[in-house]
TrEMBL record, chain B:
This is ATP-binding cassette domain-containing protein. It comes from Plastoroseomonas arctica. One of its GO terms (biological process) is transmembrane transport. GO terms for cellular component: plasma membrane. It is a peripheral membrane protein. Belongs to the ABC transporter superfamily. It is found in: Cell inner membrane. GO terms for molecular function: ATP binding; ATP hydrolysis activity.
Length: 322, 328
């Protein structure tokens, strides 16, 4: 495994008490594979990624272990590897690019720092990298500033910076959410190609189940700070075993149409300063029984590679009983 | 209900809307779709005469909105309302829920003062909120609840035409489904004529009766929802549908970006990205005829079938049936 996260917890002190944003999350990704982390706002998916990169504020209390290529990630190691062996891209490229430097200079910076390339060689390598992310006329565009690029082209520059040093791990946090759908398709296809060429392990954070279906090998579904279901992508869509996953799949309107009202999950996500005692999804779950309200279910394997945190799994039992 | 004829609007050098003609029948849900910068939001605002067109006319229930005095137009606004994307930006943080929903009632003298409170409670119940929440402030609510409040406010004056500009785009998937269901119920129960401006083709398929597809300020295709989704004719409509994720990632993505609307390509605006483009497309702008603006609409190969899989089958459908809440 390139990345192995084991029992990660992240807490923030707020003026209304402690907020446990991530509560015992374990994840793993292998070289050349894409793990999608799916969840809605507040599920803890972005905080998990930021903890991996060492980008959380100093006030965050972090527990558990994060291991990259067999070695635990300490804050020192995170600083040394960030932008080199591990890199991250964000939803809004404009806020992560420096407006005062050209695209080429920003790609070259990573190569100078992590590869010790002299400036001239770093800039030439940067142009080659911009070509690899299919920016037309890369030699000229390398001398332009971020504001001179379209949204899709800026995200390509971000990807070029992230992949310049051939990272072992790429964390992509909603990389195409701000882009138009035709441009999104280009960027996701590009990420797939580059991953195949370099063997980079990718963690793709998204709320879009269509993106997951097309681009992920494995999926972890997060709800209220915990992983509630984990499976290979094809398996998750064919046989979801957590009620939250079932509801989420039914809440997305289908392009093929049909089916009257959408399945909708009643209520809202819990206040993370004061989460429910038992299963955090129980207050919104149509299948909840008294045990669900009293006792928090652990993530238990159903098959070798499919695990769910639900006392009522396998869910076929519910249908047989009904 | 609404007839927009050859309307155009420029902002500086940007031709946001470039000669659009559109009709919406009473009780119909029309979706305007397209990517950022295609002019769909500007078109929505022009249709309500919230901004003045450079040319063209808007008839609402047979009346030329361009000929109304400012005072008459203000009075007409009770019949035409807009719901915005961002429920955080569209509610005044210094107004309680009751004040926000009551404002249009008082402004347009919809009910006597003494009945305002009851009417607000009515509206809140209708959008699925408890009337006791009327004294709270917007910041006390989640995004989904705020959008319900914004919908209650938009519907308070009893409008006949409502335009929703990406009304569910800022919401999480599970909350989005609640608000989509709510909008569908309200459209049906109140007999609303609704224009949905959206980039989310799944939501459009679910709600709309008709669809107009925009690209760089022009409508490139218009037709019934079923026809647009199962037999798209314009190459851009086809590319847009094929780009929606969740279909196996098989289709080759459209090349390049949308050109700048301040300097659109000559001829057919789409020719720079169109794999069927010929010489004529570069010089001659195609008119919207029989629902499509493409010189070669009749000679294109048949569109690829949509390949959205439903791998969960009957088991998943049965499990999901437990999630369908009873209508309020």
């Amino acid at each position: 495994m390139v990345l192995a996260i084991d029992d990660l917890t992240v807490e923030f002190a707020t003026d209304r008490g402690t907020l446990r944003a991530v509560d015992g999350v374990s994840l793993a990704v292998a070289s050349g594979k894409t793990l999608a982390v799916v969840g809605e706002s507040g599920s803890g998916k972005s905080v998990t990624a930021l903890a991996t990169m060492g980008l959380l504020p100093g006030s965050a209390r972090i527990g558990g272990r994060i291991v990259l290529d067999g070695e635990p990630l300490t804050p020192e190691r995170q600083r040394a590897l960030r932008g080199g062996a591990m890199a991250m891209i964000f939803q809004e490229p404009m806020t992560s690019l420096n407006p005062a430097f050209t695209a080429g200079e920003q790609v070259a910076e990573a190569l100078r720092i992590h590869r010790n390339l002299p400036p001239r060689a770093a800039f030439d390598a940067a142009i080659a990298m911009l070509e690899r992310v299919r920016i037309p006329d890369a030699a000229r565009r390398a001398r332009q500033y971020p504001h001179q690029f379209s949204g899709g082209m800026r995200q390509r520059v971000m990807i070029a910076i992230a992949l310049a040093c051939a990272p072992r791990l790429l964390l992509a946090d909603e990389p195409t959410t701000a882009l138009d759908v035709t441009v999104q398709a280009q960027i996701l296809a590009l990420l797939d190609t580059l991953k195949r060429e370099t063997g980079t392990a990718v963690v793709l954070i998204t709320h879009d189940l269509g993106v997951v279906a097309d681009h992920a090998d494995d999926v972890a579904v997060m709800y209220a700070g915990r992983v509630v279901e984990r499976a290979p992508a094809a398996r998750l869509f064919a046989q979801p075993e957590h009620p939250y996953t079932v509801g989420l799949l039914g809440a997305v309107p289908k392009l093929a149409g049909g089916a009257g009202r959408l399945a909708s999950i009643a209520g809202t996500v819990p206040d993370m300063r004061n989460p429910p005692a038992g299963c955090r999804f129980a207050p919104r779950c149509p299948f909840a029984i008294s045990r669900c309200i009293a006792e928090q279910p652990p993530l238990i394997p159903i098959t070798a590679d499919h695990a769910t945190a639900c006392w009522r799994a396998p869910l076929s039992q519910i249908l047989e009983a009904a | 209900m609404l007839a927009v004829t050859d309307i155009a609007k420029r902002f500086g050098t940007v031709r946001a809307v470039d000669g659009v003609t559109l009709n919406v029948a009473q009780g119909q849900v029309l979706a305007i779709v397209g990517e950022s910068g295609c002019g769909k939001s500007t078109l929505g605002r022009l249709a309500l005469r919230l901004i003045e067109p450079d040319r063209g006319t808007i008839h609402f229930q047979g009346e030329d909105l361009g000929k109304l005095s400012p005072r008459a137009l203000r009075a007409r606004r009770r019949d035409m309302q807009l719901i915005f994307q961002d429920p955080f930006g569209s509610l005044d943080p210094r107004m309680t829920v009751e004040q926000a929903v009551a404002e249009p009632l008082i402004l347009h003298n919809i009910v006597p003062r003494a009945q305002v409170r009851d009417r607000v409670a009515d509206m809140l119940t209708r959008v699925g909120l408890r009337p006791e929440l009327a004294t709270r402030w917007p910041h006390e609510f989640s995004g989904g609840q705020r959008q319900r409040i914004a919908i209650a406010r938009a519907l308070a004056s009893g409008p006949k035409l409502v335009i929703g500009d990406e009304p569910v785009s800022a919401l999480d998937v599970s909350v989005q489904a609640q608000v989509v269901n709510l909008l569908q119920d309200l459209i049906r129960d109140l007999g609303l004529t609704f224009i949905l401006i959206s980039h989310d083709l799944g939501v459009v398929r679910h709600i709309a009766d008709r669809v107009a597809v925009m690209y760089l300020g022009r409508i490139v295709e218009e037709g019934s929802t079923a026809a647009i989704f199962t037999a798209p004719r314009h190459p851009y409509t086809r590319a847009l549908l094929a780009a929606v994720p969740g279909q196996g990632g098989a289709a080759a993505p459209l090349e390049g970006d949308v050109p700048s609307p301040s300097n659109p390509p000559p001829g057919c605006h789409f020719h720079t990205r169109c794999r069927f483009a010929q010489l004529r497309c570069r010089v001659e702008s195609p008119a919207l005829e029989a629902g499509v603006a493409c010189h070669f609409a009749d000679s294109l190969p048949p569109p690829a079938a949509m390949a959205e899989a439903e791998p969960g089958g009957a088991r998943l459908a049965q499990l999901q049936s437990f999630f369908k809440e009873a209508r309020p």
